[in-house]
């Protein structure tokens, strides 16, 4: 059997298609026709030598081999892009000021900073992990170059909507949830200090469902939020991104709690035209964020015309 050499262009179409949930949309993103992308995806499965797609309703989903392929494809593309940036951008210097929501500080920040520093060691980054309102204020006032933040629809002059993230009720992993909507007691809510988009969403959902609630614990940071929830002081609201091991997302309808809306995730830029270093950091961050979102939003995706689990 000859050595298999995967085509990076094919892998890019595959990864973009999975991130966008549609290979038709991927064709637009990578600048190819839908038929060309269809041929690329068929070539990928031929090279893999095993099915990487399966039927899922009217669309397609990844097989176990497909999930494995997706992980390796992302790593190969990241290494390729990192090598290209390192060779072509060795003279990048200066400062980049980056802001992140707390949800992304522990998991996303080390990955993004590590990739960027390896490719551009002469660029220094000032990172700030703070709440949403401060992130937006610092971008609009020019004190941050980039900021990754949740949004309730508010946009800055130069921003990019990355996608939607589901909100979820969060309970302790090791402690049983004693409260139930059928009980006479109000729901104990563990929450961040106001203003907080997720706290507002939680109370609106509870009020709409006619469920009484009380604030059982207020924290200025996520660390306090996790500690109080893990200790069983109450139920909190967050997204599945970045949850520590000591808490868990509650299943749909658990304890009689109402469903929650989704939350927009937005990358804010201070200026429309930014330095090459800032744009490169934005690219790396967008790649990392879209990968994280994909892990929590994997669903049957649309195929390009004529593509099916059998035809591939």
TrEMBL record:
Q: Which keywords, in A-to-Z order, does the entry hold?
A: DNA-binding, Transcription, Transcription regulation
List the InterPro entries: LTTR (IPR050176), LysR_HTH_N (IPR000847), LysR_subst-bd (IPR005119), WH-like_DNA-bd_sf (IPR036388), WH_DNA-bd_sf (IPR036390)
- Return the Pfam families for the record: HTH_1, LysR_substrate
HTH lysR-type domain span: 6-63
Which GO terms of the molecular function aspect are on file?
A: DNA binding; DNA-binding transcription factor activity
- UniProt xrefs under Gene3D superfamilies: Periplasmic binding protein-like II, Winged helix-like DNA-binding domain superfamily/Winged helix DNA-binding domain
Q: Which family does it belong to?
A: Belongs to the LysR transcriptional regulatory family.
Instruction: Spell out the protein name for this chain.
Output: LysR family transcriptional regulator
Instruction: State the species of origin.
Output: Rhizobium tubonense
Give the classification, highest ranks: Bacteria, Pseudomonadati, Pseudomonadota, Alphaproteobacteria, Hyphomicrobiales
């Amino acid at each position: 059997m000859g050595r298999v050499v995967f085509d990076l262009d094919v892998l890019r179409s595959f990864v973009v298609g999975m991130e966008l949930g549609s290979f038709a949309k991927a064709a637009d993103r990578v600048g190819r026709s839908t038929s060309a992308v269809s041929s690329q995806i068929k070539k990928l499965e031929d090279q893999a030598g095993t099915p990487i797609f399966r039927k899922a309703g009217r669309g397609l989903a990844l097989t176990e081999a497909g999930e494995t392929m997706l992980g390796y494809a992302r790593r190969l593309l990241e290494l390729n892009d990192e090598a290209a940036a390192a060779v072509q951008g060795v003279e990048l210097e200066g400062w980049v000021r980056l802001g992140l929501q707390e949800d992304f500080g522990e998991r996303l920040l080390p990955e993004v900073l590590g990739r960027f520093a390896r490719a551009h060691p002469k660029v220094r980054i000032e990172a700030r992990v703070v709440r949403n309102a401060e992130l937006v204020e610092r971008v609009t006032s020019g004190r941050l170059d980039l900021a990754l933040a949740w949004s309730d629809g508010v946009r800055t002059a130069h921003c990019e909507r990355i996608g939607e993230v589901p909100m979820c009720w969060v309970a302790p992993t090791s402690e049983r949830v004693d409260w139930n909507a059928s009980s006479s007691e109000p729901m104990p809510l563990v929450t961040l200090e106001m203003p907080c988009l997720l706290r507002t969403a939680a109370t609106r959902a509870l009020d709409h469902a006619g469920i009484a609630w009380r604030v059982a614990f207020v924290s200025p940071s996520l660390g306090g939020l996790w500690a109080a929830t893990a200790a069983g002081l109450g139920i909190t609201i967050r997204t599945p991104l970045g949850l520590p091991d000591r808490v868990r997302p509650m299943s749909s309808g658990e304890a009689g709690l109402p469903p929650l809306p989704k939350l927009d995730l937005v990358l804010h830029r201070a200026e429309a035209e930014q330095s090459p270093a800032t744009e490169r950091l934005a690219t790396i961050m967008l790649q990392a964020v879209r990968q994280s979102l994909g892990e929590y939003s994997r669903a049957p995706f649309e195929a390009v015309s004529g593509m099916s689990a059998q035809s591939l």
